[in-house]
Fold each of these.
Amino acid sequence: MEATTGSTVRIVGLTRQFRTGAERLTAVDDVSLEIAAGSVVALTGPSGSGKSTLLHLIGAIEQADSGTITVDDVEITALRRTALARYRQRVGFVFQRYHLLPALTVLDNVIAPVLPQRGRADHATRARELLDAVGLGGRERAMPTQLSGGEQQRVAIARALMGAPGLLLADEPTGNLDSTTSAQILDLLLDLRERHGMTILLATHERSIAARCDRLVRLGDGSLVEDLDLTDGEDPADTYERAARLRL
Ligand SMILES: Nc1ncnc2c1ncn2[C@@H]1O[C@H](COP(=O)(O)OP(=O)(O)OP(=O)(O)O)[C@@H](O)[C@H]1O
Ligand SMILES: [Mg+2]
């Protein structure tokens, strides 16, 4: 796999409202945030605090009402359709429920995002390399239902890496997994970051996961309420202590 350079993300005054009947709900409320290239950031906060909405805005799945998002010097909040579609292909997205296509093999699930593009043989080669990288070499022809939850999430991660993203957005990627499997998925993400330098923004409710990230950003009612640097020279092995200090 080729090495990529992690993206830098700059968010300024980002706001997203939803209309529910006569009410207006501000899901993301004037958030400003700068994410360094190659960092792994945990996005935490109670249910409904705006984590998924923020990830959807950064991934350009949803549109902001106001504010800007700039990824690697491109203001994505100002992009039009074609450029936006191109940007979306360059961002990796991993979801809590994997979202694999049940009728496709593991290999075809990984290839699926780039199917409209030419070069099928190249795609298959790359997908095989990615499946190897996530520890699923040899399982290419399996169907998703034949895999465990952790294995399905590995397929989803391989799929997210197909476009060699500089930015990986993960919405509670370990939310459906037991703690051992969750830790393994995080090992995998941290290892991918080491090898490819990508930037990872990961929404999570789990202390043990957040504690292993470089930085913790907490949302409350759509606003940024806490921003902690977790790379402050502490023994990185001492994650339990660190986790205990994090009120997730
Ligand atoms: N499409 C939508 N229409 C209306 N309201 C929405 C929509 N999407 C999200 N919301 C509301 O916006 C707020 C933020 O939701 P969001 O899904 O971003 O929270 P979250 O932090 O990801 O929560 P969870 O931890 O439960 O996943 C919530 O109050 C939610 O009900
Ligand atoms: Mg959510």
Amino acid sequence: MKGSAISRSRVAAAAFRAACDSPLVTAHLKTLAQLELAEPNEVVQWQERRLRRFVDRWATAVPYYRENPEYLRSPDGTAAVLDKETVRRSSAAFANPKVPARQVTTGGTGGRPLSLRISYSSFFSEWAHIAYVWSRAGVRLNDPKITFRGSSLGTGFYGRPMIYQRTYNHMAVSPFHLSEKTFTELLSSIRDLRPVAIWGYPSSITPFALWAARTGPHPELARLRAVLLASEGALDWQLDLFREVFDAPPIRWYGQSEKVVFGAECPRVPGHYHVTPTYGVAQVINDRIIGSGMTNAAMPLLRYDTEDGGVLAPPGLMGRRCACGSPFVVLRDVAGRWDQSLVYGMHDEPISSAALNFHDEAFARFDRFQFRQERRGEVELRVASAGRVPDAAELEKARCLLQHRVGDRLVISVTVAAADDLLSRRGKILMIDQRYRPSQADFSAMPAQPA
Ligand SMILES: [Zn+2]
């Protein structure tokens, strides 16, 4: 298991290194720069042509679409919306076998593992789009950074509170060692690094920001240009806190493992995400974000229901540009997997469920899973498998893996539940069944929320 985690981390690091000076990334950025100069209606037309070409070239060889040709005829129009469960049950039918790809298992919103094929060039285009968001804040991919992320970069911290990773040119801080001692150590270890950005989960950056507010100003943080927020929703008070303490704008982006829609937050209007036309076409149907991705030829997903809520709007009034100058359409009020995504550690510190997210084979054996928290610092992973009862060794293996990942911030237990018990009231499985409310005592020193 560890072996596969290490090789995954090597692949991820190699992809990042290659992305930093890849002509593919540069080409993407150039295309986006040109499209930014176009008029909003021209962007829409460009995107229609691009989707048409993508479908003709890649989706026509996909078994599912051959059987359901309405997707090929009208990829952004009349075909039925593709739901996650359909893709989960017959993921092989969505593959274009001619395109080399990596297999990726995601946690899946509903708590059921979803198996995806991601083409190699799709990894580059992912970084290209992230590079685009960052560049709007004056940050390049390989600029020096402080990073608060978990295992998603592949490498474990092996009990260390922080590690410098040359490839990413960042000091990565474990989200499970967020203490005064770590922060003090962090500042002395970044003097030579001279970071220009903080990158990570809002929940992990928050304790650092509160500490910096209490103990600063710190000259080591004076060069920060942006706070790059990954993977989870940030609350308004957190955004205000970061803006104030780090004197730098928070920058967010929206995306999914399935790679159908990518949005870059508007630097002028917080909460508005400009849909990058090079990535996918966004529609909103019944208040849900439906996307047709154009970067992953290995598994083209057309009219795919992201299960995220949102509202689609033109960039500006009456067909004009946004105040930031962008002619790209806007997604706002984005809501979904980001909600209820926190668990609380030993001292009520919020921990992102993204840090708990796992891609391990050991978990793919369970059909359904869900985290439940009822007490401070304790989280129960509840699992179910159709038609069989997971044995004690499997449960212990899953527990060990998770416990190793979270360190001493949380005590993990793993139990078997009936699949039906994992259904929420709405008939959808919640990833986190959060029944505990922290006292807020440790985190009450927040700036007042805007009225
Ligand atoms: Zn804008």
